[in-house]
Amino acid sequence: MKKLLITLLCVPLLALASGPELHLDKAPDKAGDKAALQNGAKLFVNYCLNCHSASYMRYNRLQDIGLTDQQIKDNLLFTAEKVGEPMRIAMQRDDAKIWFGAAPPDLTVIARARASEFGSGADWLYTYLRTFYRDPARPSGWNNKVFENVGMPHVLWELQGEQVMGEDHKLTLEKTGKLKPEEYDAAVADLVAYLQYMGEPVGEFRKKLGVIVLIALAALFVLTYALKREYWKDIH
């Protein structure tokens, strides 16, 4: 009975181990790069916000990455009237289900959601946005190497160009886009950095505060230890 129980517990792990390994490319770390975050915000508004909302993110939060209210209004405020409004879209979920088969998800915390599944949300998004390829069998004409049979079309194809999947399962750029491959990778890295930022806008501040707290605790430990030695020095 004990051996049977151990076998049943191990079956899911064996099934997981036997599945194909998902290779993710390492995303550049641009969390503290305000210029990259600003470019990422521009890409998000122009290419993602048509179908995907970010309803837990307000436009005025972009002040944290170095933009003024006027810059936000002039360049990024396409789906709202005031900078204090959330990044919503006009498309209704019922219409989206009819057009795409499923409603596009809200992207406010997409990086954190993918991190819970794959360990690194940034790496998954960076790989995903760079591995679309032409597939005539799909309704949209596009497929993705890390998200097989994806319903989303390749919205950045004008920038990247068109890739095809070879018999060796490797992607080849068949038609060039507006950007060179290295430029496209850099643009995707900026977009991914912005998606990460939306999931936790105070993330960088939290990390810096954590370092300060640890230093303060270390100093307090030294003082506490010195006080303890002084207090107990005459007690044997």
From TrEMBL:
InterPro entries the record matches: Cyt_c-like_dom (IPR009056), Cyt_c-like_dom_sf (IPR036909), Cyt_c1 (IPR002326)
Gene Ontology MF terms: electron transfer activity; heme binding; metal ion binding; monooxygenase activity
Main subcellular location: membrane
Record note on cofactor: Binds 1 heme c group covalently per subunit.
Domain Cytochrome c: start-end pairs: 35-199
Keyword Transmembrane helix in record: yes
GO cellular component: membrane
Keywords, ordered alphabetically: Heme, Iron, Membrane, Metal-binding, Monooxygenase, Oxidoreductase, Transmembrane, Transmembrane helix
UniProt cross-references to SUPFAM superfamilies, sorted A to Z: Cytochrome c
Positions that bind heme c: 48, 51-52, 165
Cofactor: heme c
Protein's UniProt name: Ammonia monooxygenase gamma subunit
Organism: Denitratisoma oestradiolicum
Lineage of the species this protein comes from: Bacteria, Pseudomonadati, Pseudomonadota, Betaproteobacteria, Nitrosomonadales
